[in-house]
Structures are given as structure tokens and as C-alpha cells.
Design brief:
Layout lengths: L2 H32 L5 E9 L2 E8 L22 H8 L7 H7 L3 E3 L6 H6 L1 H7 L5 E3 L1 H15 L4 H26 L2 H16 L1
Parallel strand pairs: 3-4
Antiparallel strand pairs: 1-2
Helix pairs in contact: 5-7, 6-7
């Protein structure tokens, strides 16, 4: 990560912290009344081919002892009513401001992948993870809804995994590499603006 990109992350994170914290506290109160503890979900993700970290989210699903892989229709029944709302507006990702301040991720970059996919597709992720993963990015803006639609049609974990590996990973990698070849602070600001506009729309 360049110094200018890291500086942008810190400045933006500190600037929006007075907005994020009260919003987060309000959401936690609603979650306490509607679905109870635990409020947070810490998922292992990779920000380089050989370095894992804990990515923090608000919990949007019922707790399962054995939970692995990406979310398809096979997990849809576990999404809580509050979780469905949080996911729609990506409010479940508010705690990731902590990951940004720590330097685990950036505001803009490829979404941090699960370890199992990094291990299974090293050639892809050795290239993709040359960029620091982020909360949003080209793939998040242009492919996220399509990925959701594809995975929503999968009824078993095996089918979800197969569709994700065959269709989603290659498509997102192409967009992530396109971002990497054009990365700059100005481009990051453009993608942040597009993300906000997309959520509002």
C-alpha cells in the first residue's frame, strides 16, 4: 500500500468516525432488542497470500457451529430480519472501520477472500492480493449484485462453491486486476463516491 493511499484511509476513517460511532451504537441497540448476542462476527480473511486477519462485521445470521464458504441460498434461512436490512445497505460492514484504521484493509480494493480460496487458486490471488483488499472496489460496484443473484440460485453448499469458483472468482479477479492497473488516490475517491451513490440509489 502506498503512503498516499494509507494517508487517505486514515484521514477518511477519522473524518467519518463521528458519524459511524453513533450509527453503530444505534444499530447495536436494535440488534440487542431483536436478535440478541453476539452482535459481531469475526471472519478470517486474507490480505496477502500468506497473511490472515480478522474481518469484523455485524452479525446478520443465526449462529452455526460449522460454517464455511461463501453465502448462497443454502444459508438464506439463517439470515435474520435485521440482518437482511443491514446487508441490503451494507451497514453490517460498519465495524470494518476498525480494520481500516489497523491497516488490515483499505477503503478501496478487492474484497478480502477466504483462506480456502486463496489456497485453491494461488495463481489468481497472488496477483489480486498485490493490492490491499478493501471495503469497496470495482468488483463490489459492478459485480456484487450479479454475484448475489448467481449464489441465490444455489441450494446446496456444493453448488454454491462450484458456482462461486467457476463464475464469480474469475469475473471479480478481472475487475480487481483492472483496478490495480489504474490505482490512484483520485480513482479511489471516484470509486468511494460511486459506492455511496449506488447505495443511495
Amino acid at each position: 500500500m502506498t503512503r498516499s493511499k494509507r494517508l487517505l484511509d486514515i484521514v477518511l476513517a477519522l473524518a467519518i468516525l463521528p458519524i459511524v460511532l453513533p450509527l453503530l451504537l444505534g444499530i447495536l441497540l436494535v440488534l440487542a432488542l431483536t436478535q440478541g448476542r453476539p452482535f459481531f462476527y469475526a471472519a478470517e480473511r486474507m490480505n496477502s497470500p500468506d497473511h490472515a486477519f480478522r474481518l469484523w462485521k455485524l452479525r446478520t445470521m443465526t449462529v452455526a457451529a460449522a460454517d464455511r464458504g461463501v453465502s448462497g441460498a443454502d444459508k438464506a434461512a439463517r439470515i435474520t430480519p435485521a440482518g437482511r436490512f443491514l446487508r441490503r445497505f451494507r451497514l453490517d460492514e460498519l465495524p470494518q472501520i476498525w480494520n481500516i484504521l489497523r491497516g488490515d484493509i483499505s477503503f478501496v480494493g478487492p474484497r478480502p477472500p477466504l483462506r480456502e480460496y486463496v489456497d485453491r487458486f494461488p495463481k489468481v490471488y497472488n496477483r489480486v492480493l498485490k493490492s490491499r483488499p478493501g471495503v469497496t472496489g470495482l468488483a463490489s460496484i459492478h459485480y456484487h449484485r450479479h454475484e448475489e443473484w448467481l449464489l441465490s440460485r444455489c441450494t446446496t453448499p456444493e453448488e454454491t462453491d462450484r458456482v462461486y469458483c467457476r463464475r464469480c472468482i474469475p469475473a471479480k479477479a478481472r475487475l480487481d486486476l483492472l483496478y490495480a492497473s489504474n490505482a490512484s488516490v483520485c480513482f479511489d475517491l471516484v470509486l468511494i463516491f460511486r459506492t455511496i451513490r449506488k447505495l443511495i440509489n
